[in-house]
Write a structure and sequence with these properties.
Length: about 180
């Protein structure tokens, strides 16, 4: 299984090819994530850990991810939830995401059916999960995380700003014909 860790920095996933804009320990390839220096259809797994919130043109970026992925490849995405203070603290973040942000790429969702314009670029949203900070001073987050993940949309519209979530996790599957 060939894996790519985009924007890996110093925390590259073991066994993956690490790509980043800067040369630090763990980076194998220095390149811009919106112009990946790889052939089409060459990765089975792509890791996007805390990178998508930094990308100005996420549609262009996801086209590149789709291009270098094999059919049925798995894309793992971690990003700050829009209610997280971390989403707004980092001045290099250009977007704040919700649980529905990647629905635009999944033609089975109402957002994609109504609004998406690129019929070639296809992903299936396999998993959405909210991850809360858990420690002794936030003991209630163990329960809130369970409840929030039962109905994420309801959590985001009613409780999100009362009980902020730290991280959003998505697992996407690449669909190619």
């Amino acid at each position: 299984m060939r894996a790519l860790d985009v924007g890996c920095g110093t925390r590259k996933i073991k066994g993956a090819i690490g790509i980043d804009l800067r040369k630090v320990k763990g980076v194998d390839v220095i390149a811009d994530a919106t112009m990946l220096p790889f052939k089409n259809d060459c990765f089975d797994k792509i890791i996007l850990s805390h990178i998508v919130e930094h990308i100005p043109d996420i549609i262009c970026f996801m086209r590149e991810i789709w291009r270098v992925s094999k059919n049925k490849a798995t894309i793992h995405i971690w990003t700050p939830h829009f209610t997280s203070m971390n989403s707004f603290t980092d001045l290099t973040h250009v977007r704040h995401l919700t649980s529905q942000s990647f629905d635009y790429f999944d033609k089975t969702t109402s957002l994609a059916k109504d609004l998406w314009f690129d019929r070639e670029l296809k992903f299936k949203v396999k998993t959405k999960r909210l991850i809360f900070t858990k420690r002794k001073t936030r003991f209630w987050n163990y329960l809130i995380e369970k409840l929030a993940n039962k109905n994420i949309a309801r959590y985001e519209t009613i409780l999100g700003w009362i009980f902020p979530c730290e991280t959003l996790y998505f697992e996407l599957e690449v669909l190619k014909e």
